[in-house]
């Protein structure tokens, strides 16, 4: 799977990003820049992962039917009397 994952990485996008990083003025980097960098890396990795492994949608889980238990007012005394 690792070779497939590597092969599916968008090299052009990654190269553009690396060139952009080399030209960044480190004195003017703030939280927004860092978040943008992380998001770009995330997109490259996620796109490769989706291509390699695919995606799946989970079906909603069916709820178990309610037990026909005793009513709240049916306490121990009622059970004993029964």
Please describe what this structure looks like.
- This protein has helices spanning 2-7, 11-22, 31-53, 76-81.
- With 82 residues, it is an all-alpha fold.
- It has a domain at 2-53.
- Helix 2 packs antiparallel against helix 3.
- It is elongated and about 85 Å long.
Brief sketch in words of this structure:
The chain has 4 helices and no strands.
Order of helices and strands: HHHH
Strand content: under 5%
Main sheet, how many strands, which sense, barrel? none
Given the structure, what is the number of helices? 4
Net shape: elongated
Keywords summarizing the entry:
elongated; single chain; 82 residues; mainly alpha
Provide the fold topology.
Elements: H1 2-7, H2 11-22, H3 31-53, H4 76-81
Helix pairs in contact: 2-3
